[in-house]
């Protein structure tokens, strides 16, 4: 990833939400913001990966969001969940400045 980002999987883990719910919220947010093509800028990217389900696998999508989109997404979450996201962004930015 060429930009500092947070994944939808990490957002789900930090907030205790289901990944498919976070992905649904991201898709709705991107549609409402009229963000169409992930390859046009460094706002977000998507990847598909295999997830183990029972005895098989299924394709699952994971979003990589920049800080702005992450904060827009989580602004509707509870104060405790927003705090976890903001604290994690501060860690990511501090790590980036040390590189």
Number-wise, the strands total 3
Tally of alpha and pi helices: 4
Mean pLDDT: 83
- What portion of residues belong to β-strands? 15-25%
Run of helices and strands: EHHEEHH
Tell me the overall shape: globular
The chain-level structural class is alpha+beta
Strand count, sense and closure of the main sheet?
3 strands, antiparallel
The helix content is: 40-55%
Read across the widest sheet, the strand sequence of neighbours is 1-3-2
Cα Rg:
14 Å
Low-confidence stretches: none
The span between the termini is: 15 Å
What does this structure look like?
With 99 residues, this protein is α+β, with helices and mostly antiparallel strands. Helix content is 49%, strand content 22%. It contains 4 helices and 3 strands, in the order βααββαα. A 3-stranded antiparallel sheet has the order 1-3-2. A hairpin with a 2-residue loop joins strand 2 and strand 3. Helix 1 crosses helix 2 and helix 3 runs antiparallel to helix 4. The longest helix is centred in the last third of the chain and has 19 residues. It is globular, with a radius of gyration of 14 Å. The two termini are 15 Å apart. The model has no long low-confidence stretch (mean pLDDT 83).
Write a concise keyword list for the protein shown above:
99 residues, single chain, alpha+beta, 22% strand, 3-stranded antiparallel sheet
Draw up the topology in text.
Layout (H helix, E strand, L loop, with lengths): L5 E2 H8 L3 H14 L11 E10 L2 E10 L1 H8 L4 H19 L2
Antiparallel strand pairs: 1-3, 2-3
């Amino acid at each position: 990833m060429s930009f500092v980002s947070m994944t939808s999987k990490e957002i789900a883990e930090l907030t205790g939400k289901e990944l498919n719910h976070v992905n649904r919220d991201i898709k709705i947010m991107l549609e409402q913001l009229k963000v169409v093509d992930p390859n046009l800028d460094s706002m977000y990217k998507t990847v598909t990966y295999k997830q183990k389900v029972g005895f098989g696998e299924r394709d699952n999508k994971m979003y990589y969001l920049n800080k702005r989109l992450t904060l827009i997404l989580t602004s509707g979450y509870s104060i405790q969940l927003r705090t976890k996201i903001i604290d994690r962004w501060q860690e990511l930015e501090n790590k980036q400045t040390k590189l």
